[in-house]
């Protein structure tokens, strides 16, 4: 399965505490990915990413996440599988847009395609089931996206200068800034329909990214 978590905005915490919180959020996702784990932080941009990996397509350390693109511009945490990633690799190689490949993972293919074609075009050409977060270090923009069917979950919380996200609600709630207040509207929806429709969750300020959507968040450090 894999799972990931992260946040933008350190607030009053220092870099060491930010890394520790990101690690804790990731460790709570070990049931989604027991094979490997990683944390990446950029203190200048106040972003922290964590990942728990279930190794499938590339069992080597070349598939380790968070993964940085060949140029160093993009960083991603990825959950899922891109079914046509070998075809995308072949196209990049034919167009001579490929990097020096380090491994065989679909995550590396995704990052190379983003560098060559941009995120929106890459998503249009991607066939698979996935949820991911992509950080653009040059533009200081975070993107969250889910596949068209929404097979992989992705939740987020936003409050002032804090933007927090995760594959799992319990992981998200480990961040001290996240509100755990129950939503009366969501309760009404659940009683009426037997489920809570996206983008709502049971919590009033936590949202689920709808299937086939992507979210763009620009971080401006105050």
Task: Give an overview of the whole structure.
Strand 2 and strand 3 (47-53) form a beta hairpin. The radius of gyration is 17 Å and the shape is globular. 25% of the residues lie in helices and 29% in strands. It contains six helices and eleven strands. The protein is α+β, with helices and mostly antiparallel strands and 222 residues long. Helix 2 packs across helix 3 (106-117) and helix 3 crosses helix 4 (119-125). Strands 2-3-1-9-8-10 form a six-stranded antiparallel sheet. It has a five-stranded antiparallel sheet with strand order 4-5-6-7-11, covered by helices on one side. It has helices at residues 15-27, 85-94, 106-117, 119-125, 169-172, 184-193; strands spanning 3-8, 36-42, 47-53, 67-68, 74-82, 128-136, 141-146, 155-159, 162-166, 206-208, 214-218. The longest helix has 13 residues, at 15-27.
Helix content: 25-40%
H-E order: EHEEEEHHHEEEEHHEE
Question: Looking at the chains present, what oligomeric state does this protein adopt?
Answer: single chain
Rg calc: 17 Å
What's the helix count? 6
Mean pLDDT: 93
Helical/strand content category: alpha+beta
Tell me the major beta sheet. Answer: 6 strands, antiparallel
Low-confidence stretches are none
Strand-residue proportion:
25-35%
Shape: globular
N-C termini distance: 36 Å
Q: What's the total number of strands?
A: 11
Write out the strand line-up for the largest beta sheet, numbering strands in chain order. 2-3-1-9-8-10
